[in-house]
Amino acid sequence: MKRTSRKDLIILANAxxxxxxxxxxxxxxxxxxxxxxKEFADGEIYHAFPxxxxxxxxxxxxxxxxxxxxxxxxxxxxxCHHYMAHSVNVIIPYLGYSTMEQAKPGIQEIPKxxxxxxxIFRARPHFAAFVDLxxxxxxxxxxxxxxxxxxxxxxxxxxxxxxxNIENFVLVSPDYGRSxxxxxxxxxxxxxHTAADKDRYAMDKTMVGQVASVVQGKTAIICDDxxxxxxxIIQTAERCLEAGATDIILFAxxxxxxxxxxxxxxxxxxxxxIGADTYPGxxxxxxxxxxxxxxxxxxxxxxxxxxVD
Length: 309
Hints:
Layout: E1 4-5, E2 9-13, H1 18-28, E3 36-39, E4 45-48, E5 57-61, H2 67-82, E6 87-92, H3 112-122, E7 127-131, E8 147-151, H4 154-163, E9 169-173, H5 179-189, E10 193-195, E11 198-202, E12 205-208, E13 219-227, H6 231-242, E14 247-255, H7 261-267, E15 273-276, E16 288-291, H8 294-305, E17 307-308
Parallel strand pairs: 1-17, 2-5, 5-6, 6-7, 7-8, 9-10, 9-13, 13-14, 14-15, 15-16
Antiparallel strand pairs: 3-4, 11-12
Helix pairs in contact: 1-8
């Protein structure tokens, strides 16, 4: 495999991931290349590469939280092929519809986690990496010829938790599905862990029954891959407090935070939510403490393209 010179590397991003793209560019010591974009009166979107990309190694950083973000990514991949880029490499910090990786029997629903990822693969990037996937099933939604990679933020999470300098804490998984991952984090941190007893009874509704007494007298750090509406995590937090936890901290990579969940978190006394900058618009404030995944992306790109000066 050929090595890639930094002068042949171009980092792009869709609209939702420009901030993260700029952070990655800084780590590479190169300038961020913003797409030229405008909207016509009839709603059609114009895109143009601001520089010659022929023969270049392109990295596109693109979260896909909505339909327009996904289509913009596909347009950019196809555009790179049109202008004969040497390689097209995609990093997807947040994959929309990732919880819909399989259809329930007998309902005829569309498993959009798979079908949307398949649309990305049909555009034929050479390399596609995803950050903290809800399910690795989407990695296999192609017919071969595409190198895929699941980038996990474990080291960044452990470093962030250690930086909090909290004594006497325990990690909590909001359900048994994430318990192996939380157990792995707990092993790296050398602390105890437990999982909540959760049952899903509707598409966006869950019921959390109980949490083990291991949280008694400790700060409970509830860890998940994402917070969307916050329903199950709020219930988990309530069960932790009932079991004797002295404080609650929420930790999730992807902070979607739909609806009024921020207000609901504060109502039950949660004052700190830690997450990554994978979801568009995530910024630190009085409630959120955001860390960047840029170093993780930089390492993955460097390894994939074998970057040399």
